[in-house]
Amino acid sequence: MDAKVLIESFAEFARSKNVDRPTMIRILEDVFRAMIRKKFETDENFDVTINADQGDLEIFRIREIVDDNSEDIWDLDKISFAEARKIEPDFEIGEEVYEKIELEAFGRRAVQMARQTLIQRIKDLEKDILYTKYEELVGEIVSAEVYQILGREILLMDGDGNELILPKAEQISKDRFRKGDTVKAIVHRVDMSNGNPKIILSRTSPVFLERLFENEVPEVYDGLITIIKIVREPGERAKVAVESYDDRIDPVGACVGMKGSRIHAVVRELQNENIDVINFTENLDLYVTRALSPAKVSSITANEETKRLSVFLKPDQVSLAIGKGGYNIKLASRLVGYEIDVFRELNESEEEDVDLMEFVDEIDSWIIDELKKTGLDTAKSVLSLTKEDLTRRTELEEETVDEIFRILGQEFDQ
């Protein structure tokens, strides 16, 4: 393979990978200089000129002519007078000899290795460019097309043909994609695996919801409304605390939009995830009340040492505070940064009820704590539920729930 064929084939491959001309020339020169060092020990007295467009390569070895008896005659950048006269009879001592080195002088094996090295350098460069590109996009929304669906992940292809990964754990539970579908997600992180960039996407991250709000709500994008915190149970429910420093702007109204026009676009993208947008406030009681909406809170007692809140509600408000699957109270706790315990306010007709703490000798205290977390603080409040409802709300084992109903039922049978 001559120099022209080698350079032209490399240049064509480099251009197909969108490598700019200066980088292409630099790689070519690095590889040829590596060949020179391997054959001649040094490349310091060599001049390498490359014209990638024409496929031209010129390599000149530059050496100073010294007397045949000189002590410097063995230096790599020196040549004896006698040897120089063989190249050109008119040379004199002290002059420089420019000797052209043909590519063939390096040997067929070295040239083949150079070709493989050039291709590998471009592939490595391509990986570095891809890593840098997506490292800068971490936390930003990208769109990609599904090209393969696997058990634990979905493989997607971006517009440049790069592979992106959407793991099962980063998918919304209601997501159902088919080959060819366009998927929106944020770049969650970029890992290096065996020298290859691995681009991980996410649709469950709170950042994804934040970016969707920025796309749909100009005031959020412009910074007029600040998203203070987002908590999510992906695909089920989310709570978004927002604040505006401009009194003329209603942050909740702006995020929801006229007749819900803005938030509906976000909800659809998140597979009908129920999104509560609330006004952030430094007033803890008010913040908790807003976080537990739509339930109406009667009173709140805070314990700063344990970071727990005791929230009291009328009986008909408890289920609203807990929410379907317990999501409302779980998200409210995460939003305000306190563990919330819900208690029912008893009226006169409920005075005959028995507090769960009365059963501490028969029911483990951790089980009672689990029940209280979901607003069940009396025997009748537990017995008013079906076994299925209690199992779903507390995530207790069915055998445990059966035993609870047996113990509590005996109290009223007596």
From TrEMBL:
Its main location: cytoplasm. Pfam families: KH_NusA_1st (PF13184), KH_NusA_2nd (PF26594), NusA_N (PF08529). It comes from the Bacteria. One of its GO terms (cellular component) is cytosol. GO terms for biological process: DNA-templated transcription termination; transcription antitermination. Keywords: Cytoplasm, RNA-binding, Transcription, Transcription antitermination, Transcription regulation, Transcription termination. The keyword Transcription applies. GO terms for molecular function: DNA-binding transcription factor activity; nucleotide binding; RNA binding. It is found in: Cytoplasm. Gene3D superfamilies: 3.30.300.20, 5' to 3' exonuclease, C-terminal subdomain, Nucleic acid-binding proteins, NusA, N-terminal domain. Residues 139-204 form the S1 motif domain. Participates in both transcription termination and antitermination. Belongs to the NusA family. Monomer. Binds directly to the core enzyme of the DNA-dependent RNA polymerase and to nascent RNA. PANTHER family: TRANSCRIPTION TERMINATION FACTOR NUSA, TRANSCRIPTION TERMINATION_ANTITERMINATION PROTEIN NUSA. This is Transcription termination/antitermination protein NusA. The gene is nusA.
